[in-house]
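Suppose you are handed a protein chain with no further information: no name, no annotation, nothing but its sequence. What can you learn? This example shows the usual starting point.
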Amino acid sequence: MHYLQNRWKFENNALIYYGLRNKENLFKSKIKLSKKQRAIISALPKELDDDEKMIIDKLLGKQVVTENELTYIPKSLSEARFCKSCSANDFIIPGLEFDGEGNCPMCQTADDVKNLKSILPLVDDIPKSDKSRFDVALFYTGGKDSTYMLYYLSKVKKLRILALTWVIPFMSESAKKSIENARDVFTSVEFIERTVSKEDLKKIYRKLYALSGNTCACPSLAYLLFYPELVNNRVPYFVAGNEPVQMLGLYYNHMAPALAYSFSDNKLLSFLINVGRVITFHPPLKQGQFQTLMTMKQLAYGDNFIKRISGYKNELVSNVVEAIHEVPSLVSPLKRSIRSSSRSGNIPAFVHLDLDRICGGVYDWNKVKDILIKECGWISPDEGGKALHTSCSIEKCKDHTQFLRFYNCKSRLIPFSAIEISLASRRCGKSREEIISEMKDVLGFSLQEIPECRIMQEYLDC
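A reasonable first move is to predict its three-dimensional structure. Written in structure tokens, the prediction is:
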């Protein structure tokens, strides 16, 4: 009897792999099938005759196997196989492959991706602006990364900052206190907050819950709310404050090719884009402005044609875009600001500061934490020693729902926190035992529904 190997699924006339493959096949997760092959695959499990074996010869022993060749999918961390060099394992990332030395694909490719820092333009310095009251805007959540960025830009670089906070119903108490303390500490920073009416937010959340299984819309909805504010204030730059493992996670989740990490340095592409703008009577774009327009246009209009055919899709953003269009009145101001800023050239540049670089080499959480508490009045969450932090009380619910959907092959999105904690474990100064404890107790990797999901469900039902 022959079976389709676990984690391979027959979908849309092709075989799709739900997992993370070894280096030589890292992004080879789709196999196109002929008509005869499709007929055989769709009939599995079955006994194969010699003619059928000839037709699917290249799949035998790999995608099509006998019962004793089926890979086992762990049902708990205690059953998982761990990478020799990091905390990655085949429970939190079902379908994770290992090479002959026991290393996961992320460790196998560590040298290949060491220069993949950001899909946004990397800048070392942000200049003072003579056309705005602000030098830079920061999307500020009260979490550790955005708080450190606030500290660096304000106290170290002495810039004029507009701190933007989208007040969500799931903001953690520690984040609220951290934001309140930051207002007292950073007296030169201007803080503004925006929210969405409960009625409109529920329309968005209910649609998003139906699409993704959770209500997580950060930071996309924040961009939508604040872009008109950035344009009106002629803010020249804005940053989001992402740590290195978050940016690299896009690569391993097949959301951004390696080319995307050097796009902003490609002078030929920039030249061709600006030729097109000049021909259509639009001012040429400066560094980071193209990334801004693409980000905002995706929220306003969805994926463009090139992205749709490229095979690189951000399922999270696509679902958020569909959800926010449940409330057209929220999208209209964004569309107006996109048109006006594109015509005038008054486009805030979306840039990234490498947290490793500005920390002097490594974004070491143990050192950063002391700075945040002492210099920013930052309040650590209850799990203050964990490798990954959040300012949101439903972050664990997001982990859980992403994990379940991927585990059950309902989504090709590998849980972000599974990738991020695996990458972070090589450099966070924690033992494997401490990381495993965090996976069990702090993150949402469980096949049973976790209690925290009630927070999200109760909001939708109230």
